[in-house]
Amino acid sequence: MAVFSVYVVNKAGGLIYQLDSYAPRAEAEKTFSYPLDLLLKLHDERVLVAFGQRDGIRGGRGSGPGAGPVLLGSSGRGGGGAGAAGFPRRNPLDGDFVDPCLTSSVGHAVLAINGMDVNGKYTADGKEVLEYLANPSNYPVSIRFGRPRLTSNEKLMLASMFHSLFAIGSQLSPEQGSSGIEMLETDTFKLHCFQTLTGIKFVVLADPRQAGIDSLLRKIYEIYSDFALKNPFYSLEMPIRCELFDQNLKLALEVAEKAGTFGPGS
């Protein structure tokens, strides 16, 4: 069991603090021959699997068996457009345009090539990933795929989106005074939210089996009150940059993961 991450969102929907506590490693490394049987595309400065599935390596939503067409036309380079019925041509590294919505970070990204880490669209020695994989002479090639980490901009955007969903949830309530969204559940994690009277939201992403999250949320609120609000150098609604807040929050997460709850006076 684990607590994956903590977000603190101000009353305007701005992300003022974020901590990744535990990130499950879901990586797969395979050796491929040419042509590559996965469609790779550059999106948001990362090389993602846009279409195809093999040995647990898969693209974003909409890819894989039974999925609809992903290619939406040609980039204008030679070789014509997509194949019949809009499905990808044989070479998965051609220049056809892919809907960015289908290349979200839900799918896998290229993390390493032949044991060499990939940083964005380049390998550690400065080679461009897509150009390298488009060259048949570089095959066979070993590629390690995994879930890409969220960028700072993506975290800001997602916090703002959740703030809006929270407001929508409150407005949809048939009763007055709804608390808004308190929990969202998936098969791999649960999102828990606690909103204070002043509109600050504390959001925790945790393993579905993790106990004591309600107590943890209130403990985080207590830490926020003690080490952020009482800090004379902290301004309300602004990003939290306080070493004592960090230290006590990490300690609280460790206690929650081991004990599952907080007792009186903890």
SSE layout and pairings?
Blueprint: E1 3-9, E2 15-20, E3 27-32, E4 39-43, E5 46-51, E6 53-54, E7 57-58, E8 109-113, E9 116-119, E10 122-123, H1 129-133, E11 141-146, H2 152-172, E12 183-185, E13 190-195, E14 201-206, H3 213-229, H4 243-259
Antiparallel strand pairs: 1-2, 1-14, 3-11, 4-5, 6-7, 8-9, 8-11, 9-10, 12-13, 13-14
Helix pairs in contact: 3-4
Structure explained in plain terms:
Strand 6 and strand 7 form a beta hairpin. Helices cover 23% and strands 25% of the residues. The chain has 266 residues and is α+β, with helices and mostly antiparallel strands. It has helices at residues 129-133, 152-172, 213-229, 243-259, and strands spanning 3-9, 15-20, 27-32, 39-43, 46-51, 53-54, 57-58, 109-113, 116-119, 122-123, 141-146, 183-185, 190-195, 201-206. Helix 3 packs antiparallel against helix 4 (243-259). It contains 4 helices and 14 strands. A 5-stranded antiparallel β-sheet has the order 2-1-14-13-12. A 5-stranded antiparallel β-sheet has the order 3-11-8-9-10, with no helix packed on it. Strands 4-5 form a two-stranded antiparallel sheet. The radius of gyration is 22 Å and the shape is elongated. The model is unreliable at 61-105 (pLDDT under 50).
